[in-house]
Amino acid sequence: MNNNEREVLKRIQENPFISQQELALSIGLSRPAVANIISGLIRKEYVLGKAYVLNEDYPIVCIGAANLDRKFYVHTELQLETSNPVTSTRSIGGVARNIAENLGRMGETVAFLSTSGNDSEWDMIHKLSSPFMNLDHVQQVENANTGSYTALIDNEGNMTYGLADMEVYDYITPEFLIKRTHLLIKAKCIIVDLNLSKNAIDFLCAYSEKHNIKLVIIPVSSPKMKNMPDSLHAIDWLIINRDETENYLKMKINNTNDLKTAAKRWNDSGVSNVIVTNGVNELIYRNSNQEIIKPIMPSDKVLDVTGAGDSFSSAVVFSWLNDLDIDSILAAGMINARKTIETNYTVRQNLDKKQLFRDLEEYKNGKIH
């Protein structure tokens, strides 16, 4: 597409019922010129006609952060209040974006919805993400910075500090989402991270429940639990860790019985399916009919734990949408997380649908413990 086609398509995505005259005024072209552009977009099958129906499959819509990740690796024991020798890397991340890439690599049609700066950081994210997801619905905000996340990794591969610049996601408001309901209404599943405001999350819950759209919520950190919605009844899946659960439920989880109590409280609050992870120990899955405790698959080849939770969540959602049984769903999540932390990448580079199913088969045959 040329620049004019991109501008017209962008405005059609924002408002599928916009008139040709409104389009002409908004981008500074004549109405006949806009008509010719629309005809070209129809020939190229970007749109299907009035009201400009976008030619997209029913996608998984991921909503949330797309960040530039900076990682600093400390090779000796970290010394406070002095200079520490490190090596550093830059990569792309963000919870919703990472999940979108995992799902795209596994062959799902994924649309990513977010906000970004108009800067070189977004250019990098766009270039590396676009093979795996549709980024046409990301709005660039002038005078805002693309989200960034800086992690300090100790000599054992664990994150010591994480620093987040996420103010750009404040622009994802209910009004922002209302303008994009033509995309949301077609979603076979909406996955949202808690970088969005509480008002935006509340809107997505109400919209999903009204239109019977599957909804998955992925928390980001304990402080972000303040963005959990007022009502949890629209949530099909909540994948959450112990610290986030303790923060929200105002309880301490010291043992397996506490973990069971916490999972039941999530279900009693309205969540259909919940997974609560407990670090390198066990996890619990629970719904109204079933409770499963699983030990975490250990690894002695850990290189970088960044992205482990996102790879777990994406494999769980993928397996659920593909109608796998619950044991396979949990195994897929743990396998994908384990395979990811054994690489230096936030999303493992050899991931595809066949690879995940091969990994699952090896697990069932006892080759992965």
From TrEMBL:
Gene3D superfamilies: 3.40.1190.20, Winged helix-like DNA-binding domain superfamily/Winged helix DNA-binding domain. The keyword Aminoacyl-tRNA synthetase does not apply. Keywords: Kinase, Transferase. The keyword Transferase applies. Pfam families: HTH_24 (PF13412), PfkB (PF00294). GO terms for molecular function: hydrolase activity, acting on glycosyl bonds; kinase activity; pseudouridylate synthase activity. Residues 60-343 form the Carbohydrate kinase PfkB domain. GO terms for cellular component: cytoplasm. SUPFAM superfamilies: Ribokinase-like (SSF53613), Winged helix' DNA-binding domain (SSF46785). This is Winged helix-turn-helix transcriptional regulator. It comes from Staphylococcus equorum.
